[in-house]
């Protein structure tokens, strides 16, 4: 993650699962909207509350409350714990904002801005009928629009030397942020870090995402397949790495995030085939193919 200043991180040594206490919802405005690549949209949010935000980790995610089509965002009252999805129930159904979770890609504390990268899977504003609430909002939002921002925490931990980061287009920004964090604070750790990303085409991720890091990482690969075949391709790639006695299959820690079947397949191989303890394998479904993420 490009983070200004580096002191905006709570710690440089993330040895336990990050947490955040006392977070509440604040309002932010869309400052900028940029196509980073043909199928990757970057949205910059700005808020005075972001000047005081301290990040818990490089793959920190946040809750984004977005207005429904044709509606404006109504600021939410302070959140004091409980089920955050029920926090909007005081509003009429058609005025309740949708809630989706995104990773911070860039953070500028002085400017009070965060960037979030959203994989569009080739959809555009004119062809978003089948998109979920998050993508539909991202494609139609304009600078000046308001949203709600709920800070949470990071997911990745840095307890083990040999690591494997696995993802898809939705989690590639998180992987990039983890690599940048390590480069900033623990550059020698990159020599023991492997990266494996599955996507449909090179238009799905940041241009040159791994080009610079290939000379710093133990291994870095992007493999291509349709969305419906990416989990199988990841499973095949990891199985082949085992058969070839690759160092990729001898890691101590696996971080696997993205579409649910992909992340679960990586988790299964790491635990059942490679014998890595479950406490050293983190997996999270960023999204679910064919259905909305709860």
TrEMBL record:
Q: Which GO terms describe its molecular function?
A: oxidoreductase activity
InterPro entries for this protein: FAD-bd_FR_type (IPR017927), FNR_nucleotide-bd (IPR039261), Riboflavin_synthase-like_b-brl (IPR017938), SIP_FAD-bd (IPR013113), SIP_fam (IPR039374), SIP_rossman_dom (IPR007037)
Write down the species: Corynebacterium poyangense
CDD domains with a match to the protein in the record: siderophore_interacting
Protein name stated in the entry: Siderophore-interacting protein
Domain FAD-binding FR-type span(s) in chain numbering:
23-159
Q: Which Gene3D superfamilies match?
A: Nucleotide-binding domain of ferredoxin-NADP reductase (FNR) module (3.40.50.80), Translation factors (2.40.30.10)
Return the Pfam families for the record.
FAD_binding_9, SIP
